[in-house]
Amino acid sequence: MNFEGFLNYTLSFIEKYDRVVFSYITHFCFAIIIFVIGRTIARFISNQLKRVLSNRHVDPTVVKFVSALAYYAIIVMTLVAVLGQLGVQTASIVAVIGAAGLAVGLALQGSLSNFAAGVILIIFRPFKVGETVIINSQQGIIDSIQIFSTSIVTPTNELVIIPNSQVVSANIINYTRLPERRLDLVVNVGYDSDIQKVYQVLKQAVDKTNNILTSKEPTIRLDVLDASSMNFNVLVWTLNENYGTVKGHLLENIKNGLTENNINIPYPTMDVNLKNK
Asked: What pLDDT, on a 0 to 100 scale, did the predictor assign at position 193?
């Protein structure tokens, strides 16, 4: 090979591998850019979740867990994209991740169900800490909303822990979400009582009771003619925080009014007949 031929071969070799090196450098730079952008997006979404959940007064444990889960999920997707940019076949990696996720999901089916239910509770917020609710026939004040369970403190100061999956599927009665609440009382009187007199006594009892809302007219009506009594409904409105106090005072005023006016309050009786042989 003469010098000219050697020179041409050398130039063609350098030109060929320059293209390869340039291609690798380009892919590597794009991979770095993808990773930086993905990590920035992961941090942004994680911080936004922390801010939104904290503003909604979600339990700090739930805030940290959800934000960390979102961050690492985006990082994993970013790493798969980076490997694909570097020329690595990512189909097998995605398959392995999917298989691992399926295995973990089957192993933790109950826990994942509770976690998903916890996310639903956080998003839709049928109740929040400090509210009085009934869940699965269990009444109490919401103590905390954890990742997998919800804690309730009963009126007798017992701590009840209910899995979130049961909470989501149960009928939830929230007593304190709305500012006003109606108090429904049933007053039984004997058939020998004068109906108009009973109306008057019940109206006076309502008027004597404090913290009853005057913006909504109280309702007093004869509702049922029972086997041994006439049943009157007394329906009044009050603020949630005054409900227990109003109920106690109203019952006292009704009882005192009925007693003062000699209106009979019937109670169950039994007639026993003895036959002598």
From this structure: 93
